[in-house]
Amino acid sequence: MARKCDITGKQANNAFAISHSHRRTKRLQEANLQTKRVWWPQGKRFVKLRLSTKAIKTLEKRGIEAMAREAGINLAKY
Predict the structure, then answer these.
(1) For the purposes of burial, counting CB atoms within 10 Å of the CB of 73, is it exposed (0-12), middle (13-18) or buried (19 or more)?
(2) Domain boundaries of the chain, sorted by first residue
């Protein structure tokens, strides 16, 4: 399973780790992903999603149904 947010699609970013002598080595900046059980009122059950922390904050404001519809995912499969 890819390390990717189910709703926003956030994933790792390639970057450089720069030392004191300014040597640059490749590193990954991973997204802050959390596994979250979210109540889905229309389905009358919990849905287990892998979400970024930014998506969790937005989800509390906008609701799961609106965000899933915008992302184009079917909550019945989760």
Answers:
(1) middle
(2) 13-77
Beta bridge partners of residue 26, listed in sequence order: 16
56: nearest Cα among 41, 45, 67: 67
For residue 64, which of 15, 44, 4, 30 has the smallest C-alpha distance? Answer: 44
Contact 12, 31 (CB under 8 A): yes
pTM over 0.85: no
Assigned architecture for domain 13-77 = Roll (2.30)
DSSP β-bridge partners for residue 49: 36
Flag whether pLDDT at 29 surpasses 80.
yes
Q: DSSP string spanning 5-66?
A: -TTT----EEEEEE-TT--EEEEEE---EEEEEEEETTTTEEEEEEEEHHHHHHHHHH-HHH
